[in-house]
Amino acid sequence: MALAYILGSFCTAIAAFFGMTAATRANVKTANAARKGLNQAFPVAFYGGAVMGLSIVGMALLGVSVLYYIYGPEQLDIILGFSFGASALALFAKAGGGIYTKTADISADLVGKVEIGIPEDDPRNPAVIADNVGDNVGDVAGMGADLIDSYIAGTIAAMIIGKAWADTLIESNAITNTTYVILVILPLLIKASGIIASVIGMLFVRVGKRGSPGAALNRGTFSTGIVFAVLTFLIIHFLGIGDYGLGIFFATVAGLIAGVVIGITTDFFTSIDRPPVLKTAEASKTGAAINILSGFSYGTISIVPPVLGIVVATLASWYLAARFGVDPVYGVAIGAVGMLATLGMIISADAYGPIVDNAKGIAEQSGLGEEVIEIGDKLDAAGNTAKAISKGFAIGAAALQVLALFAAYAVVVGIETVNLMDPKVIAGVFVGAMMPPLLSALLILAVGRNGFRMIQEVRRQFKEIPGLMEGKAKPDYAACVDIATKGALKELMLPCVIAIIAPLAVGFIFGTEALGGFLAGSILTGIIFALFMANSGGLWDNAKKYIEAGEFGGKGSEAHKAAVVGDTVGDPFKDTAGPSLNTMITVMALVASVFAPLIATFALVWG
Amino acid sequence: MALAYILGSFCTAIAAFFGMTAATRANVKTANAARKGLNQAFPVAFYGGAVMGLSIVGMALLGVSVLYYIYGPEQLDIILGFSFGASALALFAKAGGGIYTKTADISADLVGKVEIGIPEDDPRNPAVIADNVGDNVGDVAGMGADLIDSYIAGTIAAMIIGKAWADTLIESNAITNTTYVILVILPLLIKASGIIASVIGMLFVRVGKRGSPGAALNRGTFSTGIVFAVLTFLIIHFLGIGDYGLGIFFATVAGLIAGVVIGITTDFFTSIDRPPVLKTAEASKTGAAINILSGFSYGTISIVPPVLGIVVATLASWYLAARFGVDPVYGVAIGAVGMLATLGMIISADAYGPIVDNAKGIAEQSGLGEEVIEIGDKLDAAGNTAKAISKGFAIGAAALQVLALFAAYAVVVGIETVNLMDPKVIAGVFVGAMMPPLLSALLILAVGRNGFRMIQEVRRQFKEIPGLMEGKAKPDYAACVDIATKGALKELMLPCVIAIIAPLAVGFIFGTEALGGFLAGSILTGIIFALFMANSGGLWDNAKKYIEAGEFGGKGSEAHKAAVVGDTVGDPFKDTAGPSLNTMITVMALVASVFAPLIATFALVWG
Q1: Contact residues for A405 (Cβ-Cβ < 8 A; gap 6+)
Q2: CB-CB neighbours of A188 under 10 Å
Q3: Does residue A365 have a pLDDT over 80?
Q4: Rounded to whole angstroms, what are the CA distances from A308 to A30, A337, B90, B435?
Q5: pLDDT digits (tens, 9 = 90+) for A446-470
Q6: Mean pLDDT estimate for chain A
Q7: Minimal CA–CA distance to A190: which of A5, A298, A61?
Q8: DSSP annotation of A34
Q9: What are the CA-CA distances from residue B362 to residues B42, B133, B353, B571 (Å)?
Q10: Rounded to an integer, what distance in angstroms lies between the CA atom of residue A145 and that of residue A507?
C-alpha cells in the first residue's frame, strides 16, 4: 500500500508536469499563430490544453488499472493507497500552490503597484518571478490536481462498492464469475469509454470561417457527452449483464446530465454579463463594503443550484439503479463515475483558458499589433466561460465522488446505518462540519502571514539594492521565490496535520459510526464553503473586470478601487481556500477508509 | 393551537414592550445618577436591564405554565403552538428589525456623514430618527427576542421528550402517577428555579467602594449559576424521584457549565484586547481587503470552541443521564434547559450594555462634564464584555435547544433512526444545510436593496426641502421611518416563506425521516453561519474601535478607513443575518413538529 501511495503521487506529478510543460509552450505558439488568424491560433491553444486533459485522465486510469491487474479484486485497499497518494500530491499542489501563488501576487501588487508605483509584471519588482510562476502553478497544475484526485477516488470508491455488491450476488449464485469481475471493473470501463469519447469529441472542436471559439468549445463538450453515452451503452450492452446493465447505464447518464447542469448554472453566477456580477459591479459605486456584501451574498446563493443538482443526481442514480435490481449505493457511485468520465474534454477546455490568457499578454507585450490582440481577446473571452463552467463542474463532481467515498467507507467498515439520533454520530457530524470552515480560515491566514514576510523582503530589496529602481541592478528574484516556497510548505503543515488527525481522533474515540458522521458533516460544509468561496471569488474578479472595461467610471474611479478590494478578498477565497477544500475532504475520507480496519478493531467504544 | 400561537406572540411582544420602555427610561436616569457617582449610576442601569431580563423569562414561563395547567400532559402540541407564536414574533423582531436598523444606519451614514458631511446623529439628517429607533429595536428588543424563542422552544421540547419517556415507564408500571407528572413538568420547575436564582443572583450585583462594574456583573452571573445548581438539586431531591433525580441534576449542570464555557471563549474572539481583534486592527494597515480577510478568518475559527462545547454538553448530558437510568434523549433536552435556565440574569447583564452606552451618549451631548463622562466610560466597558459573553451564550444555547427540538420532532413522528446512508435523508440533509447560508444571503441583500431606497429619499430631501442644510426647515423624518418599516416587512417575506415552505416540501415529498435530516442539516450550518457572522461582525467592530482609540494612526488614517469597511461589512452580519439564523432554524424545527402528524399521514413515500 505504501508503494501504491508513492505510485499515486508519482503519476499525478508526471501528469501535471506534462500538462504544465505543454501549456507554457503553447502560450508562445498561440501568440505566434494568432498572427495568421483566429483559425490558426485556436487549435494550437486548445490542443495545448488537451495535453493536460488527456495526460491526467490517462495517468490516473493507467495507474488504477495496473494495480488492479496486479492485485485483483481481493486487494482493492491497495488502490485506496494509490488514491491517497494522488490526493496527498493534489493537496500539496492546491493548498501549497494556492498559498504560494497568492503570497507572491499580494506582495508583488502591494509593494510594486501601490507603494513604489511601478506597473504590474515590471522586471524591477523582486516578486515578479514568484508571481508569474505562481500563476502557472495555480491555473494549470492546480486546476488539474483539483480534479485528478476526485477522478481517482471516485473510481476506487465505485469499485469497492461494486465488489461488495458482487460478493453478495455470487454468494447466492445469482451471477457467474465473469459477471462478478465485470461489476468490479465496470467503473474502469466507463472511465475508459469517457476518455475515448473525449478524444472523439475533440475532433468536433473546430472554429468555422466565422465561427466563435466559445461555440467550438461547447460543441466539443456536448459531443463528448453524447458520444460517451452511446459508447457506454454499447459497452454495457455487449458485456451482457442483463437488466443490471440498464440500471448502471441510467445511473451513469444521470450523473453526466447533473454535471452539465451544475456547470451551466454556476456560469450564471460568475459570468460577466449576468445580474450577480453586474449588481456587484454596480454596488461598488457605494464603496468597498457594499461590494463585499453583494459578492458574499450572491456567492452564497450560488450554492443552491449545485446542491440541488447533487441531490437530484444522488436520488436519480439511486432509484434508477434500484429499479433494475442494481445495488442503489453502487448506482450512486456509478453516477459519480459518469459525472467525471468526460473529464479529459473538460480539463482540456479549462486549460485552454490560461493558455490564451497568457498568449494575449505575450501579444500585447511584444507588440504584435492591434489585429492579433483582438484575436487574443476573442480567444480569451471563450476561455473565461469554459473556466467558469468547469470550476462549478469540478466542485459538484468532487461532492458526488466524496459521497461515493463515504459509501465506500461504510462498506469497508461494514456499517449500514449512520444514525443522526445517536449522540456519538452527532458529535462526529458537528466536528466534521467544523473542519472545512476551520481549514479555510487557516489557509487564508497563512496567505496573510506569508505575504507579510515577502512584503518585507521586497521592501528591503528596494531599499538596500542600489540602482534597482533605475533598472541598473537586478533584484534578487530567488529570495522571493524562496520565501514563497518555504512559507507555503511551512504554513501547509497545520491544516494538513488537522485534516489527518481529526478523522483518526473521532474514529478511535467514538467509533466507526461516529467517523461516518464526521465524514458526512465535512462533506456537507465542505461543499458549501468550496462553492461559496469559488463563486464569490470569481464574481468579484469579473465585477472588477467589468468596471475596468469602462463601466461605472472605469479604471481609477472610486468604484474601481472598491472593486479591487473585493477582488483581493476573493483571491485567496477562489485560489487558495476554495479549491483546497475538495481535496481536504477527499483526504479525510481516504484517511478514514485506509485506517478503517484499525479503527474498527481498536476504537474505544463507550456509551 | 391557533389561540396558543396568538398568545405566544402576544406574551413575547408584551415582554419586549416592558423591557424596551424600562430601558429607554433607564438611559436618562443613569446619565443623571452618574452625576452623583458610579455607585449611584450602576444599579439604575443594571436594574433597568433587569426589567427586560425578568419580564421575558417571566412571561415565557407564565404562558407555558398556564397552557399546561389548562390542557395537561395529553395536549402538549398546544404548547408547541405557543412556542411557534413566540418564534414567529421573534423572527419578525430580529430579521425584520435587523433589516430596519441596518437600512437606517447605512443610509444615515452614507448620505449624512460621507456625502453631505454632517456629524453622526445630526437632527438635519432625515434618516436620524429611523436610525435611533433602529438602535433601540436591535439592541434591546432584538436581543431579548434572540433568546426568548429558544427559551420557550427548549422547554416545550424537553416536556415532549419527557412525556414520551414517562409514557413508556408508566406502561410498564415502573413509576407512579405523581412521578409521571413530575417528569413532564420538571423542565418548568428547573426553569422556575433559574428565575428564582436570577433574582437572588442580582442581589450580588453590587459595586463596592472601588469595585468595578465588570466584576459586579460577573459576580452576579456566577452566583446565579451556583444558586441555581443548589436550588435545582434541592427541588429534585424533595420531589423524591430517586436515581432519576441524580441523572437529571447532572445533565442540568452539564448544560449550565457548557453555557458558561461557550460564553467565555466567545469573548476571546471579539474582545478588544485579545489577539484576534488586535491582529485584525493591525491588518487594516495594509488595507481594507486584508482587514476583511483577517476578520473573516478569525470569525470562522471562532466557531471551534462553541461547537466543541455543544458536542461536550450533548455527550455529557446524554451519558450522565443514561448512567442513572434516565432516557438519554431526555438528558440532552434537560441539558439544554439547564443551559438557558439562568437566562433572566444573562439578559439583564446584556441589556445593561445598551443602557449605559446610551447614557454615555446623553452625558456627552448634554455636557454633564468630564467626571460624569468618565464614569460613563467605565460603565460602558463592562457592558461590552457582558454583551459579548451573552451573545456567544445565546448562539450556543440556541444550538442545544434546537437539537432538543430535533429530538422532540423525532418523538412526535415516532422515528428512532435518521440514517445518513438513506438517499432521502441525504437529500434532506443537503437541502437543510443549504438553508441557513441562503437565508443569510437573502437578508443581507435585503439590507442593501432597502438601504438604496432610503438613500434616494434622503438625497431627495436634501435637494428639495429648502433651508434643510441651514437648519431652518425640518426634514420629513416620517418618510424615512416609513421606508425602513415597509421595506423591512416587504423584504422579510421571501426568507420567511422559504423557511416555512422548505421543511414542508421536504417532509411531504421525502417523508419524516428525510425531514429529520433536513432539520439536522439546517442546525449544523445554522450554528456555523450564526457563530461566524456574529463573531466576525463583533471583531471588525472592535478592531475599528481599537484604531479609533488612537492606535495604528487613529481616526482618519488609512488604517481607520480600512477598518470602517470591515465594520460596515460586519454590521448586517452581526445585526441582521447572524442573529436571525437561530430563530430561522427554530421556526423550521417548529414547523416540522407542528405539521408532523399531517406529514406522517400524507407524505409521498417512495423508493
Answers
A1: A153, A154, A157, A519, A586, A589, A590, A593
A2: 18
A3: no
A4: 39, 18, 30, 12
A5: 998 898 888 888 888 888 888 888 8
A6: 87
A7: A61
A8: G
A9: 15, 15, 14, 23
A10: 28
Contact: B426, A314; criterion CB under 8 Å? yes
User: Which class for A347: exposed (0-12), middle (13-18), buried (19 or more C-beta within 10 A)?
Assistant: buried
- A301 shares contact with chain B (CB less than 8 Å): yes
Please give the span between the terminal C-alpha atoms of chain B, in angstroms, as a whole number.
34
Contacts of A315 in chain B (CB under 8 A): 423-424, 427
Query: Which residue type sits at A79?
Result: I
For the residues B206-225, what does the mean pLDDT come to? 82
* pTM for this prediction: 0.92
pLDDT for res A607? 44
Chain B residue with minimum CA distance to A563: B289
> Mean pLDDT throughout A142-161?
85
Q: Residues A515-553: pLDDT tens digits?
A: 999 999 999 999 999 999 989 998 998 899 899 888 888
Whether the pLDDT of residue B390 is over 70: the answer is yes
Q: In this structure, what C-alpha cell is assigned to residue A11?
A: 503519476
- pLDDT for residue A298: 95
Does residue A18 register a pLDDT over 80? Answer: yes
Q: How far is B569 from chain A (nearest CA, A)?
A: 5
Give the gap in angstroms from C-alpha B9 to the nearest C-alpha of chain A.
Answer: 31
In the three-class reduction of DSSP (H, G, I as helix; E, B as strand; rest coil), residue A164 is classed as helix
Q: Residue A93 in contact with residue A142, Cβ under 8 Å?
A: yes
Residue A176: CB partners within 8 Å, gap ≥ 6? Answer: none
Nearest chain B Cα distance for residue A187, angstroms: 21
Interface test mutation site (partner B, options A265, A278, A421, max chain B beta carbons within 10 A): A421
Q: How far is CA B332 from the centre of its chain?
A: 20
- What is d(CA B476, CA B455) in angstroms, rounded to the nearest whole number? 14
Name residue A419's beta-bridge partners: B419
B191 vs B578, more confident: B191
Whole-number average pLDDT of chain B: 87
Please list, in sequence order, all residues whose beta carbon lies within 8 angstroms of the beta carbon of residue A434, skipping any fewer than 6 positions away.
Answer: A521, A525, B303, B304, B307, B308, B528
What is the distance between the alpha carbons of residues A45 and A28, in angstroms, rounded to a whole number? Answer: 10
pLDDT for the residue numbered B502: 95
> Which residues between 230 and 269 in chain B have a beta carbon less than 8 angstroms from any beta carbon of chain A?
none
Q: Are A142 and A579 in contact (CB under 8 A)?
A: yes
A517 touches chain B (CB under 8 A): yes
A604 touches chain B (CB under 8 A): no
Buried b (16+ CB within 10 A) or exposed e, A381-398: ebbbbbbbbbbbbbbbbb
Helix intervals (H) in A465-602: 477-510, 512-548, 558-572, 578-594, 596-602
- Which of A520, A213, A158 minimizes the C-alpha distance to A341? A158
CA A591 to chain centre: 20
List the single residue in A300, A425, A445 with the smallest CB-CB distance to B440.
Answer: A300
Closest of A202, A508, A441 to residue B269, by C-alpha: A441
User: CA-CA distance, B408 to A200, in Å (whole number)?
Assistant: 57
Tell me, what's the pLDDT at A437?
96
Beta bridge partner(s), residue B419: A419
Residue range A266-282, pLDDT digits in tens: 888 888 888 999 999 99
C-alpha closest to that of B511 among B407, B421, B601: B601
pLDDT, one tens digit per residue, over B466-483 is 888 887 888 888 999 999
Residue A210: pLDDT band with limits 50, 70, 90: low
Reference A535, options A261, A373, A305, A298; nearest CA is A298
Whose cell is 429619499? That residue is: B457
